[in-house]
Amino acid sequence: MTSAGPTPIKSISLSELGERLAALGQPSFRAKQVMEWIYGKRVKSFDAMTNLPAALRAQLAQEFSFDSLEVVRVLGSDDTTRKYLFKLHDGALIESVLIPASPALYGEASDRRTLCVSTQVGCAYGCKFCASGLDGWSRNLLASEIVEQILKVEEASGEKVNNLVFMGMGEPLANFVNLMKAIEILNAPWGVGIGARHITVSTSGLAPQIKQLADQPLQIRLAISLHGATDEVRQQIMPVNRKYPLDVLLEACDYYVTRKKQRITFEYILIDSVNDRAEDASALARVARRIGAKVNCIPYNTVEGLTWKRPSERRQDDFMAILDAADIPATIRREKGHDIAAACGQLRRQTMQPA
Ligand code: SAH
Ligand code: SF4
Predict the structure, then answer these.
(1) Measured in angstroms, how far is the CA atom of residue 157 from the centroid of ligand 1?
(2) From the CA of 223, which ligand is nearest?
């Protein structure tokens, strides 16, 4: 992207801002002051930064832009999953989902509020079961558009988000540079201050970028959307498997685990009669053992217009029993927010479709 026009202030780091301010002849402590106003006090304009000289505030307002996301719909209630639909400056729609404390899989349990954020408008990967990919891909989100999802939800809900999962719309690793910049800001003590271990990136399996992520210093967590433990099954529902077949993906997972000395999670949606047979569970157990991964099973959330179905509880239990017998650490997430179209991309689709 070209840099014509003002830079979104929430797309840059403290050191980058320091350089920009130095070029304007400003002392180095100014950058810290600006960040404190934005992420500490959460002000909405440069004008509100009252310890900066008025001339500098005016200059900043020319060089940088401030907010760009607008909340257009909120679904759900205080004690369940709440879904936020945002409009971007170009009219595109994205969504974030706030999930109250749940004894689940990312970070530690109990008093957590997890926010599920989007990284792209639409998705190019076209997994056959997913609402996000149905209308294709429009564009990458800027780092600021990722960061603002957290700030806006905290503002609207009055609650602090302390766990982040990149499981909203889009493929995070296909927007690598902006993702990493956003994570830097979200993690930094001068920024939002969310611990790296409370940040999980989910990918459909972009092997080269998984390795790239492994080479980054931050100890963020990685989840792989596996959904099939053989090429035959995975290929049927995830076109990305043609580009990065299971062997290539698992080799990248190995690399990640070795570099980070960290367990990864396999996400596994259970879809009736597609990937939920006994032999699928056995194949999943083998793959999970090879990588030393935890498994998180998610009963499929029905998507309007798609014919895939959630298996019966009996079938789900049978599947879990096989993982258990193989000593694979596995949990099943009975979806919160099923009623408010919580699976990624669903609210946006409802809103975009003419009534
Ligand atoms: N593109 C990334 C992250 C976004 S999708 C990825 O695929 O990992 C986040 C998770 O939601 C993925 O595991 C995805 O497979 C899952 N998902 C998509 N549609 C779903 C549905 N209808 N029901 C349940 N989970 C779904
Ligand atoms: Fe894209 Fe992930 Fe949905 Fe696949 S599951 S279409 S990669 S958002």
Answers:
(1) 24
(2) 1
